[in-house]
Amino acid sequence: MTDLFDELLPTTRRALLHRLAVAQSEGRTPSMVAGVLRDGRLVWSGARSMVDGHAPTTDVQYRIGSITKTFAAVLVLRLRDEGLLDLADPLGRHLPGTPADGATVAQLLSHSAGLASETPGPWWERTDGALRPELADLLEAERPLRHPTGRVHHYSNPTFALLGALVERLRGEPWGEVLRREVLEPLGMDRTGLLPEHPHAGGFAVHPWADVMLPEPLTDTGLMAPAGQLWSTVADLAKWAAFLAGGHEKVLSADTLAEMRRPAVGPVADDWTVTYGLGLQLVRHDGRILHGHSGSMPGFTAGLWVSEADGLAAIAFSNATNGPNTAQVAAELIALTAQHEPRIPEPWRPLSEVDEQLLALTGPWYWGAAPHALRLTADRGLELSVLGRGGRASRFRAEPDGTWTGLDGYYTGETLRVVRAADGSVGHLDIGSFVFTREPYEPAGAVPGGVDPQRWQAY
């Protein structure tokens, strides 16, 4: 991209500021600050405040609530990628003695372990964590489960406290310290932490029937911190959004992040609007799929969304308990930016090198009588498209062993193999036992069940 597209157009900037101003005014929040990223860069920020001339900057800290869960999930996926655990492991294998011993790590990450939504009283978000000094204090002893494990999605804050404790157990040090060393420092997020540092916003409740305010308490939630305690800034969460979009070699790969944003609880119908991955919320908004998280704590609301297809992300904060729906505002900032300045495609460029063997795989293929086309893409990838009315499309990633792995659709995770004839020529393709031949029902013996020797006939 050239410098012409490094900043947003004035009409776009005004539309974004207008949306923010309406949210701050109608939402009756003391202040609000937001930002928009394009292709990993913060290209717009805006703020509104009840005090003229004192609007917050992108360096002012706000509580981000459950956006904290995305950080906790990344730490757990780092453990998995290092081979220290498997997502299919029961929690009790690594952190025994909790009511979730039989739930898998994946079920915990996707809120499908069946655990209660909240801790026993008093409400953990407004009380000191010292009231819950042990893991056993985070769930009711008599009825910790609200649903059978693995059966339904049931949002649970104590679940992420257990995941934070899992990180502490396997790393041998406090969760916050692991987060700082393994995630915040590599990403340059020096304004994100468990407790506020100046400058930071104060949290308020606004009276429902009068324009007066009440300060909300500032608490250290102790063991519940991984569920929602972090403070951050628009500038820092812009770095986090860029990471969630593309990964970082010192933190987590793009492939693992793609795994996190796939729906993990289901079944998910084609017309789904809200679902959950591995520590990430997924929503459909204005025709696009967003991943990220909403957040709230007493005195604060927050929202962060990434639109992979648009190369956009947005962040919004407010400092009122029942203030504007900042997650909705963040989603609308993405929609406004995409509407005013739709993504400009990268120019078409030819492949930098030609592999004749790969080139020979391209063109039409038939699954039975269903026509498909195979196209060669960058990095030795393959793209299978449907030409007729029946069949399944998918993209495939090249593997070192000469096979390809499906990236989407029905063939996600399945292996594409090239089966060669005795003379070394390409015989057929095998995708998870489905045979693709160069002609419909080719009589070369590769079609499962064989082909009628009389071939095609008129009836």
UniProtKB/TrEMBL annotation:
Superkingdom of origin organism: Bacteria
Record key words, sorted: Hydrolase
Record-listed E.C. numbers: 3.-.-.-
Alphabetized Pfam families for the sequence: Beta-lactamase, DUF7586
DUF7586 domain mapped to chain residues: 354-438
InterPro entries named in the record: AmpC-like (IPR050491), Beta-lactam-related (IPR001466), Beta-lactam/transpept-like (IPR012338), DUF7586 (IPR056008)
GO MF terms held by the record: hydrolase activity
Gene3D superfamilies per UniProt: DD-peptidase/beta-lactamase superfamily (3.40.710.10)
Domain (Beta-lactamase-related) ranges: 26-338
Enzyme class at the top of the EC tree: hydrolase
Name used for this protein in its record: Serine hydrolase domain-containing protein
